[in-house]
Specification:
The chain is of the alpha/beta class and 567 residues long. The chain contains 24 helices and 17 strands. A 5-stranded parallel sheet has the order 7-6-5-11-12, with helices on both faces.
Length: 567
């Protein structure tokens, strides 16, 4: 009903104030009244227009009212001081939203005509170890993004991009090799970076397990030669390994162990399964990298300097040019990412990347390069940057460093608070905002824990409906829904379809998490203050709680969270 009233107001504004542009963009709000003397709905749009039109708000309210026709639904419109417009709805249509929701498709789907093939790439953490809580936010947001798009009917491909050909994999191989030969505590002379002090090799306890899994492959490497290189810079050992006859086979086996034994396991813990796994090495094997470099050269977008190949980023506003191929022949992430996106453009209509907020400058750089290569990035590429999440347990911040070996695996978080709470807490804020949540709070069984409170609302309604025990429900008379909580619930319920559409369109799962929490909070107050099951069982109350439950179930489903029928 609120949408219908809003449309009528916009039509009236266009008719009465046609000389003014974009009056409908001021933010028209339709709210339920708390006192039935003032009708069923009201708006303060006249007061918002007063400054623009330089007129008395009550006069504007009267003019708008006069330009909205009375019909079978809206039976009376009444301007009221200082500038409200009250709407009185016929009994037949007053609570139509309840019946509309209860009779609607369980999925509340808005079918789209313009169906696209959409590629969503997320997580894509280097295959150097288990996934930890630092990966969690992008992981969950990416999955929900894909689900939102599928919900609209689009053909969605979920893909994990595996960086299996870069320096990090070589550092991992060295780490695993050191563990295999019993030198896992060895520190190279250059192991400490001068820039940030991070270790070059990986120190996690999982390294020894990986070494055991690869023992058949690692024994092919000459131990004596490795020992002679331990006092040299780490790049000397990496060069030695790259010259080994079985280097590519060992590297591939290493990556597969990490993917199969750790990453897929961690993804399964939160219920994520990718449709596709694309390896960086495929860019080399298929010749796609060569094609991209040929295109870059043809368009005169590169040059050689100091033995390296550079992209002319400064032509497009960057502060400096960027390296594509290092002087040692290694490709940069910038080069392979360009090629990877070229591959994605060939097979999909729209590309969506879910990256960390620290990629802001890099995202701009990549976008500019693809645009220079004549790809329609404005209409076909979306890069969503996700702020970091800080988790606390027992009052202490939880570490998230794979390199040092001090991290909290995502599967441990799931074991701690459950899969559904893990998903929900990563989604409670806009992706642009920093996220902090307390693991201890996520275990609590009270209103301070939003996912518990939502689940508990569903469980309570399930029990109410079960207690009916097939008893006949009285005919509903929605005019009996007059308590403060009932009016508030009706106001929230009526906005669900609009809320759902907005969340999906903007890829804002936080809109749904907050909506469900607010709805559940009001319902719990209603449950505490009202006898829903009376001797004569009032049908309108049963219908109302059924409506609340249907929305909760749908909202949880959209977020890929399982409901709990009992607590």
């Amino acid at each position: 009903m609120t949408d219908e009233i809003k449309i009528k107001i916009i039509t009236a504004l266009r008719h009465k104030y046609s000389e003014y542009n974009n009056l409908e963009d001021i933010g028209i709000e339709i709210n339920r009244t708390s006192n039935k003397v003032h009708g069923d709905f009201y708006t303060n749009v006249a007061m918002k227009l007063a400054k623009i039109l330089k007129k008395n708000p009550l006069s504007i309210a009267k003019e708008i009212s006069e330009n909205i026709p009375i019909d079978e639904k809206i039976i009376k419109i009444e301007p009221a001081a200082p500038g409200y417009i009250n709407f009185f709805i016929s009994t037949k249509n007053k609570y139509s939203q309840i019946n509309a929701i209860l009779n609607s498709d369980d999925d509340f789907k808005q079918h789209k005509d313009n169906i696209k093939k959409i590629h969503v790439e997320y997580v894509s953490a280097n295959p150097t170890g288990p996934l930890h809580i630092g990966h969690g936010r992008g992981m969950i947001l990416g999955e929900v993004t894909a689900k939102f798009l599928s919900y609209q009917g689009h053909e969605v491909t979920r893909e994990y991009y595996i960086n299996d050909a870069g320096r990090q994999i070589d550092l991992l191989l060295v780490s695993v090799l050191l563990s295999y030969i019993g030198k896992n505590k060895h520190i190279f002379v250059d192991e400490k970076s001068n820039d940030d002090g991070h270790l070059l090799t990986y120190k996690g306890s999982y390294i020894s397990d990986v070494a055991s899994s690869l023992s058949h492959d690692l024994k092919k490497i000459d131990k004596a030669s490795v020992n002679r290189l331990l006092d040299e810079p780490i790049d000397s050992l990496i060069s030695f390994l790259k010259k080994h006859d079985h280097y590519f086979d060992i590297r591939n086996a290493l990556v597969n162990v990490i993917i199969d034994n750790y990453i897929k396991r961690d993804l399964a813990a939160v219920g994520i399964n990718f449709d596709s796994w694309y390896k960086e090495s495929q860019l080399y094997d298929t010749g796609l990298l060569d094609q991209v470099f040929s295109n870059i050269k043809t368009k005169d977008l590169s040059y050689s300097k100091d033995g390296a190949l550079w992209f002319k980023n400064t032509l497009f506003g960057d502060d400096k040019d960027r390296v594509l191929i290092k002087n040692n022949g290694d490709m940069t992430y910038f080069a392979t990412d360009i090629a990877y996106h070229v591959y994605k453009f060939k097979h999909h209509d729209v590309l969506i990347d879910i990256w960390g907020a620290d990629h802001h400058d890099y995202a701009q750089r990549l976008t500019t390069a693809l645009k220079a290569l004549d790809y329609d990035v404005d209409n076909r590429l979306q890069i969503h940057l996700v702020q970091f999440a800080n988790l606390y347990k027992s009052g202490q911040s939880i570490s998230m460093s794979t390199r040092s070996g001090e991290f909290y695996p995502i599967q441990h978080l799931v074991a701690d608070i459950g899969k559904d709470a893990t998903k929900f807490y990563y989604l409670i804020k806009k992706k642009e905002q920093h996220l902090e949540f307390d693991v201890d709070q996520a275990r609590e069984e009270n209103k301070n824990n939003p996912i518990y409170y939502i689940q508990y609302a569903h469980a309570r309604i399930t029990k109410i409906l079960k207690d009916l025990d097939n008893e006949k429900v009285s005919e509903e008379d929605y005019n009996n829904l007059i308590s403060k909580n009932e009016i508030e619930i009706l106001g929230i319920v009526e906005k669900y379809q609009e809320t759902l559409n907005k969340a999906i369109f903007e890829i804002r799962p936080d809109i749904i998490t907050n909506y469900l929490y607010n709805l559940s909070k009001v319902f719990h107050s209603y449950y505490a203050e009202t006898k829903i099951l009376t001797e004569d069982i009032r049908g309108e109350r049963i219908r109302l709680v059924q409506c609340v439950d249907k929305i909760i179930l749908n909202g949880l489903k959209v977020l890929d969270i399982e409901p709990m029928d009992s607590m």
